[in-house]
Write a structure and sequence with these properties.
It is a single chain. By secondary structure, this protein is α/β, with parallel strands linked by helices. It folds into two domains: about 120 residues, Rossmann fold (3-Layer(aba) Sandwich); about 80 residues, putative n-type atp pyrophosphatase, domain 2 (Alpha-Beta Complex). It is built from six helices and nine strands. The strands form two sheets. It has a five-stranded parallel β-sheet with strand order 3-2-1-4-5, sandwiched between helices. It has a four-stranded antiparallel β-sheet with strand order 7-6-9-8, with helices on one face. The longest helix is centred in the middle third of the chain and has 14 residues. The radius of gyration is 16 Å and the shape is globular.
Length: about 220
Amino acid sequence: MFERGARFFCSWSAGKDSCLALHRALRDGGGPCVLLTMMTETGDRSRSHGLSEALLREQASCLGLPIVLHPASWASYEEVFISAVGELKGTGVRHGVFGDIDLEEHRAWVERVCRTAGVSAHEPLWKGDRRDLLREFIDSGFTATVVAIMDGVLPEEVLGRRIDWSLVDELEAAGVDASGEKGEYHTVVTDGPIFERPLRTEHGVRIVRDGYRFLDVRPLG
């Protein structure tokens, strides 16, 4: 993918796809790595998955990796992202790793912003078969929990479920992309082969916001 030992950042959602992309990048010799997560304007929740700063920092600690968090509105997202990558480039980062599977508009955006920031973009999961990627994730020993669902697309009972073959079969039977590539659901990863220790969590309130139902997941420390 890139030269062994190359310093890279991982665009970090804290979910299964960014985690598997990170796993592949590290397996292929990349590193050291820093996680980059975009937050809401207030900085208290991640932009896509609705995860708290406390949870993200504890997850990064469990992975033994540094994390940088940058608040942004949707309007300023691209500008802030490019600026954040530019700051990382100043520390020696030369590559970015992303967890996209096959949405061409996402790949085009990734390549454009990385080119603007002066780093190279890498998509370790690109064009992977959905079930093969899920099989690799599950069989590798990763644990992930559903923390957000698109309202009206999946039943609320899916929130808090662990990603396993039973859930994958249910998603496919409901006509939903098993990987949630179009945002049908989001996850948080709590354990796996690249974790130094499991991320211990507890489930809190459920809220509806911006067309999604979110489960608040809190770190136990």
